[in-house]
Amino acid sequence: MSRFTSAAIVLAGTGGISGSYYLSPSKSSRAISSKVKVSFRDKYKLALLGDGDIWDKKLKLIQGDKPTHPKLQEIAKHKEQNDQLRQLHKQACEEIYGYSVIASPYFSDFKNYCSKNNKEGIGGTWIAAETSDPKNKKPPNEWDDKLTQLKAADKKGLQGDMLKLNIRLNSDSKKTPWTEEDRKQLKEWCDAFGDEIFFGEDGISAQNAKKYCTK
To answer: Are the C-beta atoms of 196 and 120 separated by less than 8 Å?
Structure first.
């Protein structure tokens, strides 16, 4: 093989690698760019605050807290609730809704003061009972019935920690009654999921919450 041929192969290989290098970043850059541009309004459209008393509830959370958005910081200085502060709250949330989720410094503000969590979005009465079970307490602990339902549930309708709990509950088919640890695991999942940003009621986790976290 001549020196020219060897050099040509090296150059061709380098060019091939370079060619693929310059093509790939272009595609990935477009994908990354599209993700960066996704706004809170687009990604969390089902969680946006509409009308109603929920605004006053969120306003109370701001007051005395430490938000990041300047308009929310102004609200935090006040203890009273009035129409001027309510309007400022809505203006701040509208501005935050327009920000990119990835690039925004206001994710915590959005989550805490400008959006519905799963408890608020799904609604109903969420079980708030403690997991302890004092002797002779009547009626039985509210979590016990939910644990019984969860143990008998079809695994196809479960995922994540709820599926793991179902498997653990079924590891001892004769296990009765339910223990404080059993209740604690279910309550912790319900509390954590309830505080997450609302994505709708159709997902598996949302359906699990309706069945096993609400009365």
So the answer is: no
